[in-house]
Amino acid sequence: MTALRTIPLRGMPLVDTQSDLSREICAAIDREGEALQSGDVVVLAQKIVSKKEGRMVDLASVKPSSNAHRIATETAREPEMVQLILDESRELLRTTPVAIIARHRTGHVLANAGIDASNIEGGERGAVLLWPQDPDACARSIRSGIAKIAGVRPAVVIADSMGRAWRIGTVGTAIGCAGLTVVEDRRGTGRDLFGRVLQATQIAVADSVAAMAALAMGEGDEGVPAVLIRGAGRWVTDEEGAGAVSGVRPVEQDMFR
């Protein structure tokens, strides 16, 4: 197997609604002295995609419902924040002072519906950032834009840091994906070292790539919102694929309720 390599894309400017993400990514790759290759994967932090979409909200502009006020009292949160979580979610699974666990409207389950104030200008004054409207569509659009500029169609993953059941800490997770196998199903086809046919192995490829990139990006003031992953070409496809949402476990298979 080819060695996997992460190349942090440094020096990208702060993103706003006028930014051209595809062009900025290509410029950052050039600054690193690299050229896009077939089989490359570009991983982007969710925040820069959300900023490009203008998904910033001022909490002062939100009008909380009575339900939001009730949950806010129970969880010691601002009712405006709770209202945004409700607006962005299909359902709330747990409401506690530590976190509100929500099933986001995209199907992903995570704390506070992915709404965050870190690394956002004005965050200390009540500005928060929502997830992109359609992360998979964003990944497809950025992939197409890069291909027009560079003549190469890398896979594109949009990643955010998410917690996991019964584990401490967050890990990079794919919330948008284009051109990459999301889950590689080895059941009935793969074999272990002793020739035994694999019965349950399904590899979360897109999430693994996102986790690898998240370590290179950092979670604080590193200023690295994008990473080029090289060596994952066996999972890169010419087709757009079903997107990151295809890796979400169906509600009827919920193992925790």
Automatic annotation (TrEMBL):
The keyword Metal-binding is annotated on this UniProt entry: yes
InterPro entries: F420-0_g-glutamyl_ligase (IPR008225), F420-0_gamma-glut_ligase-dom (IPR002847)
Domain of life of the organism encoding this protein: Bacteria
GO MF entries: coenzyme F420-0:L-glutamate ligase activity
Keywords: GTP-binding, Ligase, Magnesium, Manganese, Metal-binding, Nucleotide-binding, Potassium
Its EC number(s): 6.3.2.31
Domain Coenzyme F420:L-glutamate ligase-like, residue spans: 12-231
Enzyme category, top tier: ligase
Family matches, as Pfam families: F420_ligase
The protein, known as: Coenzyme F420-0:L-glutamate ligase
The species this protein was found in: Novosphingobium rhizovicinum
Gene: cofE
